[in-house]
Amino acid sequence: MNFLSKIISAFKDHGARPAFCIQNKYYSYAELESIVSSVQLKINENCGNEQNIGIVLHDDIETYASILAIFISGKTYIPIHPGYPAERAGQIFEQAGIKYLLAKTITDTYSGVTTIATGEESPENTGKLSTSSFSLDKTNAYILFTSGSTGVPKGVPITYFNLDSFVNAFDALGYKTDHNDRFLQMFELTFDLSVMSYLIPLCKGACVYTIPDSGMKFTNIYSVLTTHKITFALMVPSVLANLRPYFEEIDLPDMRYSLFCGEALYKDVVAEWMRCVPNAVVENVYGPTEATIFCLTYRITDVHNISEYNGIVTIGTPMQDMEAIVVNDSYKQLPEGEKGELCLYGNQLTPGYLNADKTREAFFELDGKRYYRTGDIAFKNEDGNFIYCGRVDHQVKIQGFRIELSEIEFHLRAITGSSNVVALAMNAPNGMMQISVVFEGAENDPEPVLETLKTKVPPYMIPAAVHFVATFPLNTSGKTDRKALQKMIE
C-alpha cells in the first residue's frame, strides 16, 4: 500500500478522530476529507492539464488540504512563502512553469499567475475524493526551492516514488506509532522536514499539531509540547539551544520519540535534553532535501556513551534502500576513518535539479550507481556509523593550513558553556582570509576565552576577531542563518 492509499484509508477508518490541531482548533479526518475534496474539485475545474501548482503557505487547514488534494490528483505542489520578495517568487514561477496558485483567499495575488481561492466550499462538492492513475516512479510529488549560490533559487523535484520510499523506510525503523499519537509540526512548509511532520501522522490516522505563526517560535513550541502532550517530535537542534535555560523546569513524560535534524546536534545539549524526555527514544537523523527528508539515523541508547566528533553527535547509518559513501576530490571511495565528502545513493534520491547544469555538478557515477554529493565532510568509524565533521564550504585554508570551523566552535563551546557560537571565515582588510567568531548574548571580555583556546588549538586557528550578537538570526527553517550573521558583523 503506497502512502496515498494509507491516507485515504485513514479518512475512512478514523473519520471522527482529530487530524489537525491548528491555532488550538481541531479538525477531524472527516472534515479534512471534505475540504480536500472541495479543493480537488477546484483544481479539476480550473487547472486543466497543468501539472505544477503553487500553494501560498499559511498556518491553516486549507493549506494542508491543498497539499493533499494535489497529491491525490497526481499533480505536483510548489510551496510559496507569502513573505517571498516578488522577484524570488517570480523566479520560482518561471522555473517551475507555474500558472495557478492555491490560497485561502485571493488576497494572495502575484503577477502572471491565477490565484484560486480554497477558503470557500464548492457547492458541487460531494465530500468524496477522486483518485488519479499516474506513474509513482516518474511523477513529481513536490518541488522545493533552496538557496542557490548564484542568488537564483534552486529547484529540487521529489517524485512520488522518492516520497513513498521514505515512508516505507521510516516504517522500517521500527517506530511503534499509531492513531493515538500526537505529532509536532514546527516547520515552515518550504522546509522538507515539514513533509514528515504531517505526512507520517496522516498515514497512521494520528493528529498533527502545528505551531502558531505569532509570537516567539521556541516558546510556542514549548507550549504545544506541554499543553498537548506531544508523543512524537522532529525538531531542529536550534530549538534546544533556546530551551536550554529552562531544561530544569521541562518535564515531558508523554514524549515517546524525540528526533533532531537539519543542523549539527551537540552531545552536551542533547544529553541534558534526555532528562526532559525520560521515556523517549532520542535519535539524530540526517538528510539533504535532495534525498527526501532524511535518510541516515543514529539512536542514542546510552547518554554516557554518545558517538560524536568535535562534540557533534554522529549521523549514523543509512535507512532502508539507501547507501552512503565517503569520497575524495577524485570521487574515489575512501576507507574507514578517512575524511572526505559524504555521498548518497538510493530510492530516496531526487532524479536531479530543474537546472541541468546544477545536476551535472552535484551527481556522479561510480560502479554503475549514481551518487549525490552532499557537500558535507564525514568519515565512517569502526562501528559503521557515519561521523559528520562539517560543511565542505566551512573547511577553509588559513596560512596554508586546512581548518574545520566546527573544531573551533567545539572548543569555544566547551570553554564558555555557550550553546550558540559560530566561527566564520572572512576577508581581512589586507585581503587575506581570517577567522572571526560570533557569540550569542551580552558582550564581555573575550581575552580569557582566547587565552584558554590557545591551549587547545595551534596559533593559526586562533580567531582574529570576536563579536557579540544579542540574538542569532534564524532562517525560515529555524536554523542559524550564517550568511545573515556574517552580514551583520561586516
Q: Report the span from N to C terminus.
A: 53 Å
CATH homolog superfamily of the largest domain: ANL, N-terminal domain
Spans where pLDDT lies below 50 across 5 or more residues: none
Largest sheet: 5 strands, mixed
Features of the shown structure:
globular, 27 strands, 5-stranded antiparallel beta sheet, 5-stranded mixed beta sheet, alpha/beta, 490 residues, GMP Synthetase, Chain A, domain 3, Rossmann fold
Kindly describe this structure:
- This protein has 490 residues and is α/β, with parallel strands linked by helices.
- The protein folds into 3 domains: 120 residues, Rossmann fold (3-Layer(aba) Sandwich); 234 residues, Rossmann fold (3-Layer(aba) Sandwich); 91 residues, GMP Synthetase, Chain A, domain 3, CATH 3.30.300.
- The chain contains 13 helices and 27 strands.
- The strands form 8 sheets. It has a 5-stranded mixed β-sheet with strand order 11-12-13-14-17, with no helix packed on it.
- It is globular.
In short:
The chain is an alpha/beta fold. 28% of the residues lie in helices and 28% in strands. A hairpin with a 2-residue loop joins strand 20 and strand 21.
List the helices and strands and how they pair.
Elements: H1 3-13, E1 18-22, E2 25-28, H2 29-46, E3 52-56, H3 61-72, E4 76-80, H4 86-96, E5 100-103, E6 114-117, E7 140-146, E8 154-159, H5 160-172, E9 182-185, H6 193-204, E10 207-210, H7 217-227, E11 232-235, H8 238-243, E12 257-260, H9 267-273, E13 281-286, E14 296-300, E15 308-309, E16 312-313, E17 317-318, E18 322-327, E19 340-346, H10 356-362, E20 363-366, E21 369-380, E22 386-391, E23 395-398, E24 401-404, H11 405-416, E25 421-427, E26 433-440, H12 447-453, E27 465-469, H13 482-489
Parallel strand pairs: 1-10, 3-4, 3-5, 5-6, 9-10, 11-12, 12-13, 26-27
Antiparallel strand pairs: 1-2, 7-8, 13-14, 14-17, 15-16, 18-19, 19-21, 20-21, 21-22, 23-24, 25-26
Helix pairs in contact: 1-6, 2-3
